[in-house]
Amino acid sequence: MKIENYHIEDFILDESFQRYFFGVNQEDEMFWEKWITENPNRLNDVQEAKKFLSNLQFETETLSDDELQEEILSMKNEILRSPNRKFIEPTQTKTNHTRRIAATITSLLIAGAIAYFFIGNTFTNQEESNKVVADYMIKSAPLGQKNAITLSDGSKIKLNAGSSLKIYPDFNKQDRKVILEGEAFFDVAENEQKPFIIESGDLVTTVKGTSFNIKSFQEDNTVYIAVAAGLVSVKKTLPDQKDSSDFEMLLQPDVMLVYQTETENFSRENFDRDLIFGWKDGVLSFKEANFQKIKIELERWYGAEIIINNQNVLNRPYTGTYKNASLETVLDGMRYVLGFSFEIKENKVYIN
Q: Pick from 82, 79, 89: which is nearest to 55 by CA?
């Protein structure tokens, strides 16, 4: 059957769609991202299929291989025989046993082996990192995690923790347009005919093939755009006038634009590559940073809440570099210099 004629259950049973949804195959991700942007009229069915997959739960009861195969065949036939191919939500199936088998089908088709996760969890985290909202495909990296993405044009993007990337539905048609919230390193595939455009707050960055880093967290009130290779064009758009600009500049390698969102002041600066680009390689660096800034970075990096009981540490500068280090290791290195003790309880850190 052609994909254009798929019903919701056809998406669910399609092995390529399953691999795309659970993010286990890059080629499938690229194919389905492109197909969804080219077929916006099928967005509702795609969302329903994703909803079904995200609600599947793995339970602790196991089956023998023969029983598993028999149940898989039965489950498939039940879906395919349903009157008018009517889609039924997982919560409406007859038994928990059926829901468990549906989950097992997905696991078997994707992994090619029997894999049970005995934690009573859904695939919420996977869904959050790859979902469709309105007309956008959204890629995200939750707090404490990073996400590597390859877009349909071949561009490679690394999302830092707490960041998201909205991909326009017409991506890679006339141009390649995305919206960034947070921080990302872009390695853009060269295409002279289709510029790559990143919207980050008031700033619009345009390239045709280069690599660079954008840091644009709304709560930071500062946007940093640092170029690793090639040329990068940046302009500030006027309110409600995306085609007009307040300023525009061209950035070369090893030059960074620093834009203050509250005052609208901006400057060009040279920068330390390890300090700006290091995060994508697991390197956490600080240079003369106060602890308030360090707190924000650590909370994003490790997904922990930091509670400061010792106010004396807030304005003391700190310089240090850590690679693939645990939160405890980082804090242990800081406490001698900044003069504090700390305690970690579950997902909270107390600075005393």
A: 89
Task: Name the residue with tokens 């390689």.
Answer: 281
User: Which CATH number does the domain 134-275 belong to among 1.10.3720.10, 3.30.470.20, 2.60.40.10, 2.60.120.1440?
Assistant: 2.60.120.1440
Q: How far is CA 32 from each of CA 19, 35, 83, 137, 199, rounded to the nearest angstrom?
A: 10, 5, 28, 11, 23
Q: Is the pLDDT of residue 115 over 50?
A: no
What is the pTM (predicted TM-score) of this model?
Answer: 0.64
Mean pLDDT of the chain: 78
Phi, psi at residue 6, to the nearest 5°?
-65, 140
Q: Which of helix, strand or coil describes residue 10?
A: helix
Class of domain 282-351: alpha beta
Which tokens is 216 given? 């644009």
Statement: residue 209 has pLDDT above 60? yes
Is the pLDDT at 270 greater than 60, yes or no?
yes
Assess contact for 204 and 237: CB atoms under 8 A.
yes
pLDDT number for residue 109: 45
